[in-house]
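Title: Prediction job returns without error message
Component: structure pipeline
Severity: low
Priority: P3
Assignee: unassigned

Description:
Job completed but the reporter wants confirmation the result is attached to the right record. Sequence as submitted:
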Amino acid sequence: MSIIVSISTTADGNMYNRHHSEDITVVKNRTRLLSSIGSDIDSAIRINVDALRRVTQQHETNWCRYREVTQANAGQGMRDGNTDAADGLVTRTPGIALFLPVADCIGTAIYDPIQRVLMVSHLGRHSLEQNGAQKSINHLVTTYGCKQSDLRVWLTPAAGKQSFRIWALDNKGLKEVAFEQLKAAGILKAHIVDNSADTTTDENYYSYSEFLQGHRSEDSDYAIVAIMAE
């Protein structure tokens, strides 16, 4: 079994509309991206972090919520908002595409070729403040019997330290904290594939923080997609 990990760019178009979950253009962009890697929208499941509602309405305190998905969940959240909020999804089903829109935070794919388990986890400020990278790894170890030395990790671009710092963690950058937590979790540095682009300066990727500051015209997300292929 092999692994496919794809990270879209602005050239692929917007992968998430914060205000309209059934945006036809977004659905078309997702369909085209998935087709380019041999998948389709009905085989994908969107990771719905739903941070705004969780903060303002639910007063969320746990930003490390993970759930397993199977073929029965295929298609959820890809054409609408019909999917449960989570900070990461795990699957043991080949062909299921785990789809995470991001625009400054770190999208993280984690794969165990021995246990044949795939996870995509959202590592933003809230999650990292709660040791989310290490908790993602620990979840795979304790729930699925994975060994840290077997795990492979892929990281998306993220907002750079000069523009976005986690004040609760000594003003460290997102990637800085993520690497520290992955190391503490036992992940080998040689097993991490990092796209080091800074979303706040590299216009090949969307940046929500830059949009909010009026430096970008589009309120949009790119995406990471991961699939176990037989």
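Comment from assignee: result matches the submitted record. The chain has six helices and twelve strands.
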